[in-house]
What does this fold into?
Amino acid sequence: MKINKIIGVGFQKTGTSTLRAALEILGYSVLGPRTDLATALADGDWDTIYKESNGYDALEDNPWAVCFKELDLKYPNSKFILTIRNKDKWIQSVVNHFGNTSTKMREYIYGDNNGDPLGKEAIYLKRYTDHIIEVKKYFKDRPNDLLIMYMEKGYGWLEICEFLNCKTPRKKFPHVNKGAYSIKEKVLKFLKNKFRTFLKLDK
It folds into this structure.
């Protein structure tokens, strides 16, 4: 049976960019994060959301991860990939990347006034772990429709290609944004967050 769509249901900073790069190498058209759809998501404006997603083979990152149930109903015969990362490394990466900046999308996901992760690590960690539990529970009777990808454990072409029933490409499996932040990167992220706050920009 032909796969309708491939939907990444892992939270951001869990290897979503790597997943997108891998799917693109396999020849799929991929729609990545669309934080501008936060209002439509909050309003339940599914026509707008589906209009944006219809033309792609695969979806990954937000808002797709948090509306996987609706996407499952909209696109039957789809495959879902849950990227998972060590929770301590995940929250460190989230705080390093977003700092004290907020977005409407993260407010929708983590709650009002919780769009910025700095100082709200416990809230973010609970939402992260709850999401993983929710996804696993939803697909517990459909194991063939869900692949859990542990990028830190070296998961790559073997798992993805077996799951999607496709040939393994000759290209090396991509690793996007791999590794811990360097001191230079941390400084740049800090200055970037300060600049965003000053201008009141929304990522």
User: Anything to note?
Assistant: Residues 180-186, 199-203 have pLDDT under 50 and may be disordered. The chain has nine helices and five strands. The two ends are 39 Å apart (CA to CA).
